[in-house]
């Protein structure tokens, strides 16, 4: 390379390596020493160790053979069976919990019946009337011609 090109590259490198907007150092010897120290830190033993660990020779990914496929199939079967067994145990624990809760509820039900007949009747009373009036118009996308029937009355429960 020509001398001028080399000088301009060194000058550009010095600008890049020094802090942003910092004035160039008057001491060129100190700049050269600092550049050597930076370059040494980049190629130091730490980087060599990283290169050895990351790019270790002799370790290459291998393509699984047919035997590996059979082993993988067996492993998959074992995993599926273990998962099914775990789900079965989980379901049995849930069923036991449900039974325990039901028995506790039944016991509380019997105790309430023994303590107070009126509270028991209030607890087991059910409203047999429908939750939603079946006589109402079915909801649709379009509004009805008559928006609201102000004369509508609920049918008498005793007549049905």
From TrEMBL:
Q: Where in the cell is it found?
A: Mitochondrion
- Gene3D superfamilies annotated for this entry? 6.10.250.3440
Chief location category: mitochondrion
Q: Which family does the similarity line name?
A: Belongs to the mitochondrion-specific ribosomal protein mL40 family.
Instruction: Return one Gene Ontology term, BP aspect.
Output: mitochondrial translation
Concerning InterPro entries, the annotation shows: Ribosomal_mL40, Ribosomal_mL40_fung
Cellular-component GO terms for this entry: mitochondrion; ribonucleoprotein complex; ribosome
What is the species of this protein? Answer: Piptocephalis cylindrospora
Under Gene Ontology molecular function, one entry of this record is: structural constituent of ribosome
Q: Does Transit peptide show up as a keyword for this record? A: yes
Protein name listed in UniProt: Large ribosomal subunit protein mL40
* Listed Pfam families: MRP-L28
């Amino acid at each position: 390379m020509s001398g001028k090109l080399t000088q301009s590259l060194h000058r550009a490198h010095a600008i890049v390596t020094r802090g942003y907007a910092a004035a160039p150092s008057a001491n060129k010897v100190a700049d050269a020493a600092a550049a050597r120290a930076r370059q040494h830190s980049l190629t130091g033993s730490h980087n060599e160790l990283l290169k050895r660990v990351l790019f270790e020779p002799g370790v290459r990914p291998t393509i699984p053979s047919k035997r590996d496929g059979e082993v993988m199939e067996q492993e998959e079967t074992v995993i599926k069976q273990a998962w099914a067994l775990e789900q079965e145990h989980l379901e049995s624990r849930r069923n036991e919990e449900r039974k325990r809760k039901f028995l506790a509820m039944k016991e509380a039900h019997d105790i309430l019946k023994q303590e107070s007949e009126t509270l028991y009747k209030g607890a087991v009373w059910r409203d047999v009337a429908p939750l939603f009036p079946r006589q109402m118009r079915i909801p649709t996308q379009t509004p009805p011609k008559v928006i609201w029937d102000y004369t509508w009355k609920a049918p008498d429960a005793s007549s049905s």
